[in-house]
Amino acid sequence: MKASCPVYPQPLKNRISLLSRLFKMRRSYLEVFNEHSYRMKMGVIKFPGKKVFVANQPELVKQIMLDDVASFPKHKIVGDVLEPLLGESIFSTNGAKWRKQRDMLDVAFDNAQVERVYGRMQEAVNVMLARLDAYPKDAPVDVDPEMTMVTANIIFSTIMSSDLDESQARTVIDAFVRFQEASPTFALLNMLDWLGDWIPRLFDSKRRKDAKIIRSSLEQVIRPRYEAFRRGEADEHDDILSSILRAQDPDTGQGFAFDEIVDQIAMLFLAGHETSASALTWTLYLLAISPEVQQAAFDEIVQITGDALPGQALAPIPLAAVKRMGLVRKIFMESMRLYPPVGFFTRQTTHAMSMRDKELPQGASVIVAPWLLHRHRELWDAPDEFCPMRFDAKTEGRGVPKNAYLPFGMGQRVCIGASFAMQEGILILAEILRRYQLELAPGFQPEPVGRLTIRSENGMRLSLRPRNAQASEVV
């Protein structure tokens, strides 16, 4: 299959001034990197009165994320940026508090096993397909909001057994888009300690209003079930919320308070739909610009599902078939290499230390950047090319560098829903590919931006052409 080189912000030739860096970072973190950034093992980004260290070597990543995690807790800025939306969820807490939250959620998340919720997942996908079918056949479709809508619906359904109607979904999604757009400026101001707290807060009122819109939508579902549970009424739902309501601290026997439940559900909702939507949108783009890969994926899907001839009804794809789609899985994994949903993990040192030739003081900011690591010129062959077969088991030893691929994080803080997200992504891709041939809309080129997640600032306009020919023979 012929490799393609998809769009990404071109590295700067040289370092830029502090003022230029700050200006660019207000829009996107991806635009401040120069060519050396994609080769370095450890770098330093200088701000007034502050240095930020970037660990970009697999050995350092392993130390930070796996071997010595106690010395590199989540940075305070993560909590400050996400607090209006996520409160004190496991996404930003540290230490014993994080450990207890994670233990309680691990038990609750057993209910998110794909086998138990696959039917709900299929229902949400069918709603998405109906929306796609309703678009005019000759008009390009912006698939970015469609991927956001379907993943939000899946998470709402599997977490809380509740349907997310289109109007409510668009309200929530629009609020999060605004929240995300405003977050880089708040984070930059917050990072400059000498400004104090009051200046960043001046720029935070709109973010807090949008966070409240999202949390209110969740509270409307959570509150009646929480209050009924506290009254001793049986909760007959078989979902994650039901398990979280029953979860108890093994030391105290206490359950989550209402606000704590909203924090954790907000975290699961955000992590479960926003990151998946980002990954799916970029995967559809990569397939649209890679006809040979797209055809091979279509052939695999048809071979495994045994689809009927065009014009006949397509049967639902069973979970067992999803698990057999090796090429679609590789495509999804390669997409998350090129466009990792979360491009930057921020940590903070608990004590002074040395890393390579750098002296890090206590409280130093340390970034592990999948965006840089996944495109490192010395670690990957053809790092900017879309090449799913690098994830083939036969080439994995040289195709995927150890400790250099972390779309879901690494170590004890690895994404709690990673397996769920993989199966969800493969199902959505398979259902779209067996119905439509994807092409990039004429004259369109996406504009990647790095904020809380990596998205295309101008959406993702694709032509979805209904398939009218049976798959070619798989060789």
Our measurement of the CA-to-CA distance between the termini, rounded to an integer number of angstroms, reads: 12 Å
**Coarse structural class:** alpha+beta
Helix-strand pattern: HEEHHHHEHHHHHHHHHEEEEHHHEEEE
Helix content: 40-55%
- Rg, rounded, reads 22 Å
Average of per-residue pLDDT values: 87
SS summary, helix count: 17
Strand order of the largest sheet: 1-2-7-4
Say how many strands there are: 11
Quaternary structure classification: single chain
For the largest beta-sheet, the strand count, sense and barrel status come to: 4 strands, mixed
Percent of residues in β-strands: 5-15%
Low-confidence stretches: 469-475
Global morphology: globular
Keywords:
475 residues, four-stranded mixed beta sheet, three-stranded antiparallel beta sheet, 17 helices, 11 strands, 49% helix, 9% strand, globular, disordered C terminus
